[in-house]
Amino acid sequence: xxxxxxxxxxxxxxxxxxxxxxxxxxxxxxxxxxxxxxxxxxxxxxxxxxxxxxxxxxxxxxxxxxxxxxxxxxxxxxxxxxxxxxxxxxxxxxxxxxxxxxxxxxxxxxxxxxxxxxxxxxxxxxxxxxxxxxxxxxxxxxxxxxxxxxxxxxxxxxxxxxxxxxxxxxxxxxxxxxxxxxxxxxxxxxxxxxxxxxxxxxxxxxxxxxxxxxxxxxxxxxxxxxxxxxxxxxxxxxxxxxxxxxxxxxxx
Length: 252
Description:
Elements: E1 2-8, E2 11-17, H1 20-30, E3 41-45, E4 51-55, E5 61-66, H2 79-83, H3 88-102, H4 107-121, E6 124-132, E7 138-145, H5 149-152, E8 156-158, H6 162-170, E9 173-176, H7 187-193, E10 200-205, E11 215-222, H8 228-250
Helix pairs in contact: 3-4, 3-8, 4-8
């Protein structure tokens, strides 16, 4: 257990917790936020062990920092980047393109459309959509883009391992500066494909009627550091894909 500083705007509190995620869960309650908002938060992990969380609906920012750690002079996501809204013309174009997801024929096609759309807005070396298997204990690569696409598509990884499983199970989005230095990273995927994962952004694929996430959408090795704008685009695409899954599973 250690002390963590949780702040939002001019309000700042110190809580005791095992890690930044526990501190965030405790802190949002103390800050007067509804605990049900936790799954709506996109979280960027900082090099000093803390995190910057943003409510994708309201735009509210919550920062979590270990008290013993000195604050970084240049955080991974500068405040201006985190709160930058998506321009109206981009939102309109994105809305029109997301309509292709709802008209897709099946899970694989919808996943491929979603991945193609998000990569058109957020330039990355690779990306993937991973969806829970029928047994529920694995994640299947339903759409993959990048050098390792041929080896990964339709393969399955354990839900309990890796950042994709972490995001799917907790239902929160994260951005990581260097995934290879993160203990949750499933290095076996890199070893089996020869691909080198660097920065990663992952958001849950969750529909309006689903209690848990269907899977996650992840982006790897961006052309420029991930920003809050990238988070918003990825989250909107993932939400549209989640709505498609709601309709698919509702008729089964």
